[in-house]
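Need residues for this backbone.
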């Protein structure tokens, strides 16, 4: 089904309001993967629980990150996920009155390296891998200062694979995504978060221009249902804080 064929407010039940949530077209499980046919991850579970409590329905559509923001700006989708006011969307002119929810979850971004390279300093670092469309903000000033090369990969799994094959010294990817990829991989290579290299954390929020009232209701839902949210985070093994030397297996 094409994006334009999705109505903004259609429902068989006249009392049920229906909205379109646009999501980044990424396999970011356990955070989210809206292209999955069944379990689409933690964020999907939270939004479904919220929708059920408020007698609304969300239809989900996956879009490339740049197009996601363009469609939100045009109003062809009602919400975008994930989003954050700190993110810069290059080459996209968007309005300034965007409304953001509280964070549904925390994205933890670190530099994952092979175990033998743990403790490697930035002076010894030569090449960084990261998924295309992402900006490794904490690395930006270091690229030119230390002549560090970059490899953009199709997805997080590709960034991990670049490190596994020795094509990159490290991968700047979300920690929980890396942990999940390790858990489903038959390989035995162990990557670790290098505490001596750039690290950051950012909230994954729902954004909108058209429906600030629903953002307000979602914020209240998140506050009032902390036990539910924590149980879902435990179900998806979603860590929101980590020890510097936690490790994952790499694909």
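Answer:
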């Amino acid at each position: 089904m094409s994006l334009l064929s999705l109505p903004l407010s259609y429902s068989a039940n006249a009392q049920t309001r229906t909205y379109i949530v646009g999501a980044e077209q990424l396999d970011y499980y356990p955070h989210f993967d809206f292209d999955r046919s069944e379990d689409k991850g933690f964020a999907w579970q939270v939004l479904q629980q919220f929708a059920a409590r408020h007698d609304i329905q969300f239809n989900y559509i996956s879009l490339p990150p740049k197009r996601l923001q363009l469609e939100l700006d045009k109003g062809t989708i009602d919400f975008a996920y994930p989003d954050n006011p700190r993110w810069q969307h290059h080459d996209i002119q968007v309005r300034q009155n965007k409304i953001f929810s509280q964070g549904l979850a925390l994205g933890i971004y670190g530099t994952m390296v092979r175990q033998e390279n743990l403790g490697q300093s930035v002076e010894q670092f030569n090449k960084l891998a990261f998924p295309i469309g992402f900006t490794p903000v904490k690395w930006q000033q270091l690229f030119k200062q230390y002549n560090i090369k970059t490899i953009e990969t199709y997805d997080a799994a590709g960034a991990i694979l670049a490190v596994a094959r020795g094509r990159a010294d490290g991968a700047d990817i979300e920690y929980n995504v890396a942990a999940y990829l390790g858990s489903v991989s038959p390989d035995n290579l162990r990557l670790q978060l290098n505490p001596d290299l750039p690290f950051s954390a950012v909230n994954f929020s729902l954004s909108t221009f058209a429906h600030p009232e629903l953002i307000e209701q979602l914020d209240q839902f998140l506050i009032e249902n902390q036990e539910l949210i924590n149980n879902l985070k435990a179900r998806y093994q979603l860590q929101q804080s980590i020890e510097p030397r936690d490790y994952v297996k790499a694909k």
